Amino acid sequence: MKRTGVWRVVALFVGLALLAGCGDKVPESEAAKKLGNAPKQIIDKTVTDVNQAVKQGAERTGDADAKN
Questions:
Q1: HSE on the CB side for 54, CA within 13 Å?
Q2: What's the confidence (pLDDT) of residue 56?
Q3: Where does the chain have alpha helices with state H?
Q4: CA dihedral sign, ordered 46, 47, 51, 57
Q5: For the segment 5-55, what is each residue's pLDDT rounded down to a tens digit?
Q6: How many Å separate Cα 38 from the centre of its chain?
Q7: How far, in Å, CA of 1 to CA of 23, rounded?
Q8: Domain parsing of the chain, residue ranges
């Protein structure tokens, strides 16, 4: 009886080792890629919006200086 339990534990560890060895070879789904890219897209959009705001502020400052 004890031998069966030992073999089950050994089989479990072998199975876990095989899963761990193949873990990086699993293809990433499209949904996971989109979810992973979401923070980058948010940062890129924020940078673009800030650059547009700075440009608009510079134009308004230049217009105000020209009027005075």
A1: 6
A2: 93
A3: 2-22, 30-67
A4: positive
A5: 788 888 888 888 877 776 665 566 787 777 888 888 899 999 999 999 999
A6: 7
A7: 33
A8: 2-67
The single-letter code of the amino acid at 51 is N
Distances from the Cα of 25 to the Cα of 7, 15, 17, 18, 20, angstroms: 28, 16, 14, 12, 10
Take residue 27 and report the two structure tokens written for it. 């293809």
Q: How far is CA 4 from CA 8, 10, 11, 16, in A?
A: 6, 10, 10, 18
Indicate yes or no: pTM above 0.70.
no
Backbone Cα Rg of the chain: 29
pLDDT score of 1 more than 60: no
Nearest-angstrom CA–CA distance, 68 and 66: 6
Q: Report how far residue 38's alpha carbon sits from residue 55's, in angstroms, rounded to the nearest whole number.
A: 26
